[in-house]
Amino acid sequence: MVRYVVRRLIQAIPTFLGITLLSYLLMSASGNPVKVLAFRPDSSVEEQERLAARLGVNDPWLLQYVRWLLGDDWLRWDTDGDGVADHSFILPLDADGDGENEAPGTRRGVVRGDFGNSFVKKRPVLDILFERLPSTLELSVASLFLGATLGVVIGIVAAVKRGQMFDNFSRVLAVIFDAIPNFWLALMLLLFFGSFLKVLPIGDRCKLTLDDSCPPIYERLEYLILPVFVFSTGLISGYSRLMRASMLDVMGQDYIRTAQSKGLSSRIITFRHGAMNALIPIATFLGPAITGLLGGAVVIETIFNYPGMAKLCLRPRYLAIIR
Amino acid sequence: MKQQLRLIVFMLGALVLSVVAGSVLAQEVADGTLGAGEGAPIVEPNFGGDISTLNPILVADGPSQDVVDRLFPILVGSDPDTGLPVKGGIGAMATDWTVSDDGTVYTFTLRDDWKWSDGAPVTSADIKYTFDAATSGEVDSRITSAITNIASVEAPDPQTVVITYKTSDCEALGVTDYLIFVPSHTYSEVYPTLADMTADSEYNMNPTVTSGDFVFSNFRAGEQVTLLANQNYPDSPLGYVVPQGWVYKQVADQLVGVEQFLAGNVTLIESVPDDKADELEQRGQAGELIYNEAPSASWHYMIFNVADPENPQSGEDADGNLIDQGHHPLFGDVRVRQALALSIDHEALNAGAFNGRGSPIGSFVLPASWGYNDQVAAWPYDPEQAAKLLDEAGFVDDDGDPTTPRVANEKALFAEPGTPLEFEFTTFSGNASMDATSVLVQDQVSRTGFKMNLDIIEFQSMIGKLLSQKFDTAALFIGPFDVNNPGESYELFDASGDIVDSGLNAGSYHNPKLSSLLEEARALPGCDPAARKALYDQAQQIVRDELPVYFFTNSSVPYVAQADVLNYDPRPRSIRWNITMWSQNPR
Predict the structure, then answer these.
(1) Above 0.90 for ipTM, yes or no?
(2) A24-36 pLDDT per residue, tens
(3) How far apart are CA A198 and CA B263, in angstroms?
(4) B197 close to B189: Cβ distance less than 8 angstroms
(5) Gap between the Cα atoms of B448 and B393, Å rounded
(6) Which residue of B has its CA nearest to A203?
(7) Considering only residues 197 to 256 of chain B, which have any Cβ-Cβ distance to chain A shorter than 8 Å?
């Protein structure tokens, strides 16, 4: 078992490197961020050069990638504690040729949990992400929970009542909710419940206060209703159809007929023998569902003004955040 | 008796002085104005993302600057009506100043009643600290490149600041906007050395000592920055601050921001999205809200690359000598640029891309500026004249098919015979107005024989391409400009700004006469406004005729406020000049 785990972990290294390489390549493809950061009339060439040197964007691309991934504290370091590098690997000690050694590297790299500072915000990237993580988590977890629960229940009932009104109705609704774009549904619900009926807030996560407080989630459920509903409609549709198909498949198995012939009640057959086994393929749907949630959060968080991580992605200039 | 007379004269003098002083920004206080800190907090939407720092020396983004403006005093205030520097302006420390004969030394007298929130007085040492930090080379500050003409800032006593400029500069007072007062006594403790003033210092996001009309309270990432009323603020016309606080509420989507405004959750929207402007204007007319429009302080323009895009060169070598940059095969000829301008139907463009809120403009100086030359006409829509110019320039319709591009003949100045009149129009994606502009202009210019290929790319890539100077035409917004400083655009038209991969004069147009006019207007001895305007007038005419850039429009920007905000009195150059008086009952 241990050998298997170790083997799989070793196999994962090239995959991980490939992902990081591709991600960094994509981020770099949009060009030199200094050009945008310093694009204003009062920006001087000297300022741009200083900025580029500070961000390290004029270094060879591979070096930038290595610094981002593995850090630079092992590329140039200080052994006598005077704050000036006295040893280096690959990098020259005096990079700018001014006759003085550079300061030692301080970056530890992504693999050691140091994502560095954002080019745009100039603050630690992890700080920026962690500030917003709770919002994204509460929205995603609530949506996943609602979507999976409702989807599975609807799927079971639809399978049990196959061909009946509930089955047909749920299938039609599933298609409709699958087909409606999230952003449109979100805007319509906001306009109807927020602007027209005024029964739900128009976005946000908490009521506006002057102090630094946002009450616990159970005291501000009204802020979650619309985003979670919109977010989970796709999940409900997907889960209900998948569960229905899985349930029908299971209910046609021999062991179900055996259970029926033993005289077990239909409730036990449906839930204990049918639904429990039908859930197994459903579990495989969880992985894509979670990634789908994080992707879809960009739209939902933006429209509902929910202060999560995904909202950062909407600003093109924030591409520089992860560098 | 003499004493009584003196007293009467003194009292009369005081009365006259107070009337004069009051009339500078006279405003009737509305009935029902609430008391200190009793008004609802002012909530403004922030469409620009989270703040990154509240250290004025490190600020480099709009949202952070907006908050910093509320927290720290500046040196020279401006008239909210004209935007021009004024002695004793609201929120500013300088009550008076004198200028040396050669125009390089400004001596400012500071008020002595202004205190930091910890009780320490605001003094000249606090502005000197900012200058020293920005010029130390130890701090990564955007201020550094903006104050390169300042030789020194001295603080001979707590109420005197002496700023020495390297050269005489008629915009010297405007440059002081960058020198914000910071609490030097606190900063010296928080940042023991200037090298410690880095972007990741925790104090940057939690300033404990400030002295604006509001003091910092808290920052909730992705949600809001909250400031509370500073009742010790010495510059409130009422003697106290009415709103409980000021909240800069982050709103990712402008339409959602408008809905939140209509629901009463937001006090003011400074920039209303185009597609909501009509609705809000109607609601304003119905008295549901207060609707105003202000002229935009930005350019929405197209740059022509007049140099050879196949071999981009900077405008000058290291010694300042001009470099031969070659010519763009099409736009190197001014007649082709003019023909393109004559092919654009502004009326259709205004209706299709600017929601009818734009007006044609031919000048690079914005109409709100004192330096605007209203005699400089915008390019009219005249396809016949455009065709004539193209014929003269050697681009002819050789097949009689108006749907195909013209081609160059031997008369063309820089294009090989047979070269089609085809070019790339580079711009950025994700902006509805720019998207509409691209498609409309493409269609319009095709009628006079131009083939315009759209190259709509991500913003950062677009800026990279623009600065690389490997483009034909490029369109974008730039600004906001200080409309009272027409010389701010100098770098966009001078050879010194024509630097491959970094200069703003990416189109490589330069004209010695234009540069000389702009330089002269900026450093004119005595800084006589009329004489300076005459110089700027000539410069505007040159840019209009030579057409290095084409201005699509000058838009007006609608802004709205809740109807029940008492004392709300926006002025042309400042909406918030009396924000401490805004009074709205808490909801």
Answers:
(1) no
(2) 888 888 778 887 7
(3) 8
(4) no
(5) 13
(6) B256
(7) 199-200, 205, 217-218, 220-224, 226, 228, 244-245, 247, 249-253, 255-256
